[in-house]
User: What shape does this take?
Amino acid sequence: MLGTILTERVKSFPFHINLVTSIVLVVKMPLMDSRRFIFLTLFLLLWAFRTLFSLYTPPVQPGIDETQTYLLGLKCYTTGTWPYFGPDVNGAENPGFNSQIPGALEGLLLGLPFYLLPIPETPFILAALLSTLGCVLLAWYIQKRLPQLSLNYLFLWIAITPWSLFEGAHVVNPAFIFLPSVLFFLGFMESLPAFSQNWLSPFWSNAFMGFSLLWIMQFHFSYVYFIPLAAFSLFVQIKNSKNLVSLFYFAVGCLPMLALVIPTFIKYGLMRTNVASGFTVPFNWDNVAQGPVLLARFLSLACFELPRFLADHTATRIAFLTSHPTLTLPGAILWILGLLQPFILFIYWFKKNPASAWKETKWFLLLIFLTVWASFWFTNKKPASHIYMCFFPWLMLYSCYVWSLFTDNPKWKIAVKVFLLIGLYFQLGYSLVYPREYSIFTQRAAMAQALQEKNFHLFGERRPGTLY
Assistant: This one.
């Protein structure tokens, strides 16, 4: 059944045939090092898979956000105008509030690639590429810290984890902070003696933090979480070195992204930066009481949290699995194991671990959680997981510390391989059978016409009252 559906989907558009053919040709290229060959093959296949997944499935929160994100890039390309503003700022908690985040990065990032590849799939290819690169860097770093773990298996696990896949591969604003979040994570960890493995120089560590902070600032409000982390890192470095060179390196990293924000400040003034005021409240006791729920969601970011992505209610989730017999058993296995994983991560926080920097990592993760929890005390925003998705790298590192405790067990190694195979099979099957009407790619004809005629209105309209 899945094979038939896959064949039909691949034949749907000429682009898909070209993509698959190109990957097959690259994979067949002879390489001297078999490990590089395997890793390159895995990268290309996962990039292709994540691209196709984003074409056929909706993001975490289906709705108009994906259309509006796509339109920003399409408008930039078809009109040839400078995108002074990026993502829209609105929400169910305050429907009357509407603004935009200053900065040209989103419009340019999504619009300029059309000049190289003027086809509707380009933003999907880009989103999948950036997030897949983030997966590679994160897997590589974790494997360096925990060498008993396999780089290929780590890469596969991070790439198919639901939050990484649904939030990282789609054309939505949070997807474009996945890679810079990993870069900030690498820079931060390497800038502090307690975590550093001495493979990044002070220049690149601080430049990564500055570059990533201002990148994320133009896409998502979660950048505010990184401000105190960057300040703490700089404080420790300045205290230890007795000079301000780390601050200079950080500023150098900020410059490329800052250059994309300054034109907005010059034209519209600094007051346009206050775009989060519509969601602040003196105190929100409801979010305080959400602490235990938030902890479960927080840990689940690095787990195979399946129910969240099947449907909104348990009955409809079960109905989805049972209506697709080829996914019923794999889905049930992943559902149960995915629910158990956060409990294991919680319990093993109290366990000893011989790996280096374990104590520092677990205590730092606790501090991150408390920071996230406290941040929701002063907003009417609900503590939705995508808001703190920027901490995915830290959670994934922590979870791998826990899983590394089981690597000496041969049965565990077999179980991991089986689990990853089932996970990949399910995600592929899910993308093939999920109703296509929930994906904006059903409007490919309108996208193509808008590109050809250089008229973004043929695909859709920006939200009323938008600044760009």
Observations:
- The longest helix spans residues 122-145.
